[in-house]
Design goal:
By secondary structure, the chain is an alpha/beta fold. Helices cover 32% and strands 17% of the residues. The protein has two domains: 99 residues, no CATH class; 291 residues, Aldolase class I (TIM Barrel), CATH 3.20.20. It is built from 14 helices and 15 strands.
Amino acid sequence: MGNPAFPEEHFLDVRRVGDADDDRFNQRGKRRRIGRLGDAADAQAFDCVAAPVRDGGNLEAGARERGRHRLAHRTEPHETDAGNHERPFGRCLRITFAGRRSARLMTASVTPAVVRPTFDAMNLSIGKRTRLHRLMYEHGPANGTLMMLPIDQGLEHGPVDFFDNPDAIDTDWIYRLAVEGNFSGIALHVGLAEKYQKHYAGRVPLLLKVNGKTNIPPDDDAFSPLTSSVEDAVRLGADAVGYTLYVGSPSQELDIAQCNEVRRDCDRYGMPLVVWAYPRGSAVKAKGGIDSLYAVDYAARVACEVGADVIKLNEPVWKADDAAKLPKPYNTLEFTDVEGLRKVVKSAGRSLVLVSGGSKMGDEATIHKAHVAMAAGCVGLIFGRNMWQRKWDEAVAMASRIHDVMRDYGQDA
């Protein structure tokens, strides 16, 4: 039995492996993909006997070339609210198609068919809709996903973050990576925007970060004062502003009030608000930690309720040793990475969710995190150190691989 907190719906995706017989395959009019199971009846040309696979299961099925497909299991999408459907990320199965002339090896995988909140469902103003459309449909993957490149770490962490790749301390190097890697936009503070954005105006959309702090004092009473304004963002041609909100900090009263002023200015100027929703403070640490599902889930909901259009957050982590500290029922909700993140996406309501990359990881771990985020229903990724702490060729190659991931998660406006 699965955890009732994480519903189990499935999606079937059938892809061809290899390019043998592609022309004959297409000439016969057979589909190379079956969409979500709810639409499977439309895919009448496939010879297929298939069932969803969960928990690493596996199935081999033979089918005759001219037969019609049969599905042993069919489910409909789980609707979380208007304009937001979700399904879990699953394992792969293999199906063999035996034709009269040659055998065809196909793969099928249980993958998500995610419908994220639409612009209409988000009730966006004309200005916000226009700017988000530029970010999501005119730059980067340009398919309704986001692939952001942040470079606000110099203020937040200091120059130490540039030691792995000294070239990255030159902000122009970061901008050139944004162009070469075809990112949806760049996120940085006003000082860097003033000095570098002009040369890349129209080519690299700007997300202006309007508050920040250093990491020199402890985070027990975390608060980020304003470093710029929404008016600065408009003057600089930005397509969004970013605000860090420390949920659970003793200074949250000031923080929420300051965020509200930024939110009002964003509404006035038609500027999308991206909230960095970060749990902080000793009380959060005492209740399971800043990366617990309880903390991240709560932060996502707070950001949604204070008016975020997009929420940037970290992936929640299950730590059995800290479970006893968690408030009920989170202390019993053991979860996989996709399940935990999906729960957070649901709590974010009709706000879009971006997943932070965090500290630099290996190549495969970075790609896995991208897959998890998109499978869980996030609109995209905001990976900084996992991009620009790599050398140029490695960073461009990683951006290309991320594009490959995003290609499967497009959605119309």
